[in-house]
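User: My advisor, Dr. K., asked me to get a structural model of this assembly before our group meeting. I'm new to this, so sorry if the format is off. These are the inputs:
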Amino acid sequence: MNKFGKTILILLCVIFTAGRSISIHAAPPTEYEVKTAFINSITKYVEWPSAAAYAASTMRLCVIGHNSFGKALDTLRNKKVSGLVWEIVPVGSETNLKECRVLFIAVSESGNIRQILDGIEGSTVLTIGDTEGYAEQGVMVNFYLEDNMVRIEINIDAARRAGLNISSQLLKLARIVNQHGGVQ
Amino acid sequence: MKLLTLFRNASVKRKFIYIAFFATGTALLFALMMSLVLQWLLVRAELVETVGSQSRIIATNSMAALEFNDPKAATQTLGAMGAIKDIEFAVIYGRDGKTFAAYSREGTEAPPESFVQNGELHSFSAKHLDVFYPIIVEGERIATLHVRSSLSALYDKLLWNMAMLSAAMLAGLGIAVVLVSRLQTIITKPISDLVGLMDQVSSEKNFALRARPDGWDELGTLARGFNGMLEQIQARDDELEQHRAHLEQLVAQRTARLTEAQRIAHLGNWEWDVATDTSEWSDETYRIFGFTPQQFIANYEAFVQAIHPEDRQLVEDRVREAFELGHPYNIDHRILCPDGSVRYVHEQAEVIRNENGQAVKMLGTVQDISERKLIDDELMLAKQAADKANRTKSEFLANMSHEIRTPMNAIIGMTHLCLKTELGDKQRDYIEKANQSAKTLMGIINDILDFSKIEANKMTLESNDFDLRTILANMDSVVGHLAREKGLRFDTSSQADVPNFLRGDELRLGQVLLNLAGNAVKFTAEGAVTISVNLKNAEEKVVELEFSVRDTGVGLSEEQMQRLFHPFTQADASTTRQYGGTGLGLVISKQLVEMMGGGIWAESAPGKGSVFRFTARFGHGKAFAAVTQASVESLAAARARLRGANILLAEDNPFNQQVAAELLEETGATVALANNGREALALLFKERFDIVLMDVQMPEMDGYEATRKIRATSRLAGQKVIAMTANAMAEDRERCLASGMDDFISKPIDPDQIVLVLAKWLPDRAGITREEGLVADLRSGKERRRGGDRRAAKVRMGDDVIDLAILGHLVSDDPDKVRKFALKFLETAQKTLAEMDAAHTSGDLAALGGLGHKLKSSARTVGAMGFADLCQALESADKANDLSQAGMLLRQLHPLLERIARQVEQETA
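Assistant: The format is fine. Below is the predicted structure of the whole assembly, which you can bring to the meeting.
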């Protein structure tokens, strides 16, 4: 971990644990920082089937395409969610996508979206994106901005097809999108 | 306190109800309170649980909204709280403590904007319950849910519960009270039954009633115990009733007895209640006052009216004294009975007082003493008469003094003069004896008269100046001479400080000294007699002297000393025999000394001699030339007076006749003889006698009768009669005087006495001078002393059957005469004894007694006292009609006479 990342982590810790008096003076989180926190939270509301290709003890997040998070994702490193340790993996040529629990598809891959999704067809990978239209194309969770606030839309059919169970709590907060366009 | 008193006085039934009420009420109240407290706790816990679980659901449902920062969704979730109407608000505070989402019921207080975490999960205030539920994700508290619930519903519920419970409690209480008031009769009925029975028993006094006990519980036992008690009371009642009946009977019996006793004693009792002025009188009291209870109202006024008018004041005064002064009420007074008779009553009473000392009652007795009073009055009169007679007699005797002395002086003087003339031996002897007898007689008469004077309170003391030395000199010459002749030392001494010149009655002082000194010499055989005078006390006007007369004589026993100063006693009766004397000397001395302001006493022991002391008070006398001789009336004068007198001697005893006749003839008197009263009377009618000497006991006619006859005969008016009696007692003397005799002489005859007494009643024919009398007196004193000496000498011999000194005294110690008269006595006695034997043989006791009397007299004259006593016993045997006693005495007289004869032979040879 580099020096900067360390500083951010400490800062976050201070903000989250010390309460209001400190957070007043902290800078408001950036869009990707919010998206990182959202990714972390989303995993809590998703149930993966037990026998799968991915490692049982890690929460592997594969990022495909241009990584717009910058340092934000580093905040997840060594953090645990639901008992699993975050593992951030940039997707390379030899990366087996099926081994990833979460796959973030960057906006740069909007042309290849079909191929990527087809490539993981039949596997239990939770797909997340932040590009408009991704959800209609079959990405399970997609971020969008509304009144400068990061919002979530979910393609519930895609998730079901993959055998992932998304909690109703999350569903209640999200915009549900059908496979073939249109919002439910 | 009041409540407690109220409870105590309430009936048992009420007590039960009160107890049930309070016990049940307290239990229910406690239960209610417990129930409320428990409910409160329960409801609270329930509320906390309800609100808590609600909060948990909300929190869980809000978790995602918080994570994805979606307040809208959270608010929506919170809105679910609106379904619960107690919830006032629900707020979610984010990590920063700021409100994330809120729900607030309309019309309630708005929730606070921010939240301060204080760690509490929930807290109650008066109106709310606040629940703080932390929302934790992945071990991290991301928010807090604050829910506020109103408590009003809770309170409503509690209130409702309380109301319901209270109602239930009241109902329970009511039921309890009703039950107790129904059931208490089980307990209270037997008690109230018992109480009722008790009231009945005490109001009806019927102890035969019984309680009916139910069961064997405490109440049954109580009823049985009550019954047992009733039985005991009934039994005791019966017993008391029996006692009462018995007592009533006893009281009736006693009352009857008391009434009877009062009737017999004439003694009634009464009780007077002062406050109500009512009296209760016993039957006898009414009887004494002569009323019946019906006709008399016994109050104080009625009582006073019943008193004799003259005694009313006295009785009322006494009643007042009894009340006011507490004096005893003990009074004799008269009462006036309704029938007009007067009775004497004796009343005794006591005042009864209450605790304040106030008189409330008077209790007393009244006794009819009329009969006793009558006797008392008679006795009183008799005593007054007797006193008067006694006084008259004593006065008479006291007045005799002068009249006796005058003739005595004549006798003594005359015989004295006669002795100066030329006389034959026989004549001289006779005259000397007469002189001596006269002097002796004078002394005795003086004593008797002095004593009479003292008794009659006629004795007075003179007050003259005198010289004490003269008196002492006289003592030395008169008594001292006597003592020295007897071989005794005699001494008089006066202390230097004793004044010589005194003022008082020198004659009486001399008399006392003479008496004491004479006695001392008389009773002393050897040694000394001393007279000494000491000054005891000297004051301005008075001198007190103490005189002592000390002797070395026979002395006196304690008992003798005690009797010394009493009349008619000498040391003992035998002394009279041995030493003669009237026994009055010391009595007179005592009286005289006391009149002189002093006292007399003796100190002695038998065989140790005696000291007679007396004190006397005198005034200071003026100095004067001492007179050599005090003038005293003398025996000599008496003898002189007898000379030439014509005397009739009436005496039945020839021996005594001769002695007396010779004695009187010696004085120069003419003596005619008579053997009894009759002869004496016969002679008196024939011849005039100056004086009759009359023996009182004579045959045919005794002296008393003869004298009465003389007094009854006018021709013999003024005839002097002198009695001769063997008993010189006062009663004989009185008897003599009563029968009309002028005086008396005691037998055996004392020559001096007979001369003195006779001289007293004879006219002073010789005109004897005082000086001659004095000389005669001194001479006769000398002769007497000689005789006394002889007598004293004889005493020492003892075993004497005859004391010839007595005869010697009678005949002036003339040995020839002693022998002559002694032989004459023996001759007479022999003859009389023979007559006695004859009388005894014939059983003539009277004759025997008469002979005894005759011989007794003669025996006494010659001094055969033992023989005389036997003769007197013989005389008594006649009076007692005892012949055997007479015989026994007679047998003793014979040998005694023989012994007398032998002694006479020896002593007169």
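One thing worth pointing out at the meeting: Confidence is low (pLDDT under 50) at residues 625-633, 766-798 of chain B.

User: Perfect, thanks a lot.
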